[in-house]
Amino acid sequence: MERLISRKRLIGLFLTGCACVGIVTSGTFLSGGRNATVYDCEGNKVAELYLENNELQYQCEPGYEAYFDLVRNEVINIVMEQEGTDRSSAMQKIVSDGFEIRTGFSQNAMDGMIDVYSRTPEVTNGNSAAALSNTEGCISACYSISADGQNYNYVNIPAYAGSTIKPLSVYTPALEEGLITWSSMSRDSPYAMVENSSGQMVEWPVNTEPYTDQMITVEKAVAESNNAVAVKVLKDCGAEKACLFLENAFDISVQQEQEIIREKGEDRALANVALGYLDAGVTVEQMTAAYQIFANGGMYYTPHTVTQIVNNEGEYYAPDGKGVRVVGEETAFIMNRLLREVVLGGTGTLAQIEDAEVCGKTGTSEYGDHWFVGFTPEYVCTVWYESDSEIGTTDSSVQAVHDILASLELSEDAVYPRTKNVYEMEYCMETGLLRGAGCQKISRGYYAGNNMPGICSECE
């Protein structure tokens, strides 16, 4: 596999204007001239937008740059779409109309995120980014660090997702199609033998732990981030179908993977789709938005920072607030419980918070990407960082998400949406079928009423 990450990130910089180029001040705002004013979720003035050298700049507190970079770009795009005009004219209108821009920005959440970063050196030695949103796509805080000091906004620069893509590209489509259940069994063995760069035949894919050649459940495969099972489930579900889901549900680019499938067959795209090596990559913003479906019952809301824009004529813009159902409530809740197991006893145990139900998924890539996307009934938080020193472990990203979520005022009354059509049932750990009369090794799992396994008779 070619290393495409550097090229991808440069493309991301070019397309999205990600460099945080606003002038930073410490609480003193510009005076004189016409500016647009930005307010936080409580109505406090937190930033200004102004024109300089024919570019819309922003002024904010140090550390807030990544957030107001998103605000600036979002407002420009809103005006371009509303007015049917070009970027230059949109920027002129934003300033000349003296826009008042309301956002979901939370200073408490942002300051908590900055504090966590100051205490987590492992995620600050290289490029890194974090984002926090509610479960309806409204971003309340984000942070970015550039190792080279260039102030790139890595919140919306693509990177390889690693295993954080599996719940989105593999298990959710397979559950939605009724192809797997909580306890479906797959063998923990290589999918294929492939030739490596030295001409040797080796097992593929590589697991973090040695193959056991034992049958394991979907629940265990998700919790332990088993690569072989993910590849096999994707093969059964269909890589092309998974690509369509990523594209249609989350607007994640899969053009290259679709081309590979057409020209070379599905097997050549399995690594990209199942193991998080999509050619165009994914961003922290995209992953934060995608994982909201597991917290809110299957609804996708476009990620956004802006909640309202007012000009001298009154309200100019407000999001419609409408989500799109991308999976059924049953699938969303079963995935929620599977991702809860990741935190309870899998690769994300460091994310556990007392009196809060945290779910999530870890991910790494062979190019130094380290991810954790964690969520509660109220929030979704993503931390990504780039480091070659900890390949194979995501402890630092998991700990950072834990600390960010723990710094918030989490409601003890908040709960995940439930559905009447999902049942907690006992199943046989030997067969993955529902518990029969003779089954001795049993566990519990969650099943959709229209996709129940049979009852085990093999243990009688």
Describe it:
The chain is an alpha+beta fold and 460 residues long. It has 13 helices and 20 strands. It has helices at residues 5-16, 65-83, 87-96, 107-118, 166-176, 218-224, 227-237, 239-250, 255-264, 270-274, 284-296, 329-345, 395-406, and strands at 23-24, 36-39, 45-52, 55-60, 100-103, 128-134, 139-145, 185-187, 192-195, 201-204, 215-217, 299-300, 306-311, 314-317, 324-325, 359-364, 369-375, 379-386, 422-428, 442-448. The strands form six sheets. The protein has a seven-stranded mixed beta sheet. Helix 5 (166-176) packs across helix 8 (239-250). The chain is globular and about 80 Å long. The termini are far apart. Mean pLDDT is 92; it is low at 1-17 and 21-27.
List the helices and strands and how they pair.
Elements: H1 5-16, E1 23-24, E2 36-39, E3 45-52, E4 55-60, H2 65-83, H3 87-96, E5 100-103, H4 107-118, E6 128-134, E7 139-145, H5 166-176, E8 185-187, E9 192-195, E10 201-204, E11 215-217, H6 218-224, H7 227-237, H8 239-250, H9 255-264, H10 270-274, H11 284-296, E12 299-300, E13 306-311, E14 314-317, E15 324-325, H12 329-345, E16 359-364, E17 369-375, E18 379-386, H13 395-406, E19 422-428, E20 442-448
Parallel strand pairs: 1-4, 2-5
Antiparallel strand pairs: 2-3, 3-4, 5-13, 6-7, 6-18, 8-11, 9-10, 12-15, 13-14, 16-17, 17-18, 19-20
